[in-house]
Specification:
The chain is an alpha/beta fold. It is about 35% helix and about 15% strand. The protein has two domains: about 130 residues, no CATH class; about 130 residues. The N terminus is likely disordered. It binds iron/sulfur cluster.
């Protein structure tokens, strides 16, 4: 049992009408989001626009609602899905955020999907996925991707205050790989000057953990991203906001080249979206 998160955040409950939504994510037909909101509270979260559909007035990152009827709705919806359907868990929440330890909506979702001829990709920043290891092993086609944008624990706490420590994520990646489950790491978004500081140890660490695939994405300054991201970056290093203004145009491409080269040398797959 993972004990990284305690005490558990408060969690509301809601009834959903649907649980599989068409996915805009390349390679995935549908997304499943077992929760609304996410207490990982990442400073660079792109899902913050979901606030307006959540019915909450509190800031994004401070609330979460469990879709308590999601498993029952899923049983109904999977009957319409063809074999080979690819499912992404999750696109606008973290399926293993702390309240999963109480509600187990993600686990019950996976129990329904396990015997079906679908391809499932889990995306998380939480070591809590470890609790479902035996269930994950029963899938024919499943992968687990951890987002890691820095190997530096202090920087990660500033950027992703509610998520598992990096050491925990890497430990669980190794556990999953040793159990024969396909694992990947998403370095995304690349945080200027933060990701690069620990990039070598990040890459070495995940290679040692048996990760076979790395994905990489740029930082997209959509909406009011800077409102949360810049204070977090300032907390890491007060000089960063000023340095950001002078960021070389090909900065992200340089990072991408380093990662591609590393992966080539270790025979790891690399997909850069930069
Ligand atoms: S884990 Fe994902 S959904 Fe949750 S706050 Fe972080 S970026 Fe947003």
């Amino acid at each position: 049992m993972n004990t990284a998160h305690s005490p558990l955040p408060r969690c509301g409950e809601k009834i959903c009408r649907t649980i599989m939504s068409p996915s805009g994510i390349p390679g995935s037909d549908y997304s499943i989001n077992p929760y609304t909101g996410c207490t990982h509270a990442c400073a660079y979260c792109y899902a913050r626009y979901m606030q307006r559909y959540s019915g909450h007035r509190e800031p994004w990152g401070t609330f979460v609602d469990a879709k308590v009827n999601a498993p029952a709705v899923l049983v109904r919806e999977v009957r319409r899905m063809r074999p080979g359907t690819s499912i992404f868990i999750s696109s606008v929440t973290d399926p293993y955020q702390p309240v999963e330890a109480r509600y187990r909506i993600t686990r019950r979702t996976l129990e329904i999907l396990a015997p079906l001829p679908f391809s499932v990709g889990i995306h998380t920043k939480s070591a809590l996925v470890e609790d479902d290891l035996d269930l994950l092993r029963s899938f024919r086609d499943i992968s687990v991707t951890f987002t890691i944008v820095t190997a530096d624990e202090r920087s990660a706490r500033c950027l992703e205050p509610g998520a598992s420590p990096i050491g925990e994520r890497v430990r669980v990646l190794k556990l999953l790989a040793d159990a024969g489950i396909a694992t990947a790491v998403f370095i995304g978004p690349v945080i200027p000057y933060v990701t690069e500081r620990s990039l070598d140890s990040l890459l070495e660490g995940i290679a040692l953990a048996g990760v076979r695939e790395v994905m990489l994405d740029d930082l997209h300054y959509a909406g009011r991203l800077g409102d949360r991201l810049f204070p977090a970056m300032r907390a890491i290093d007060s000089s960063l906001p000023a340095r950001l203004r002078a960021l070389p145009q090909d900065y992200s491409q340089q990072i991408s080249r380093i990662v591609l080269e590393f992966c080539r040398s270790r025979h790891m797959r690399c997909r850069s979206f930069i």
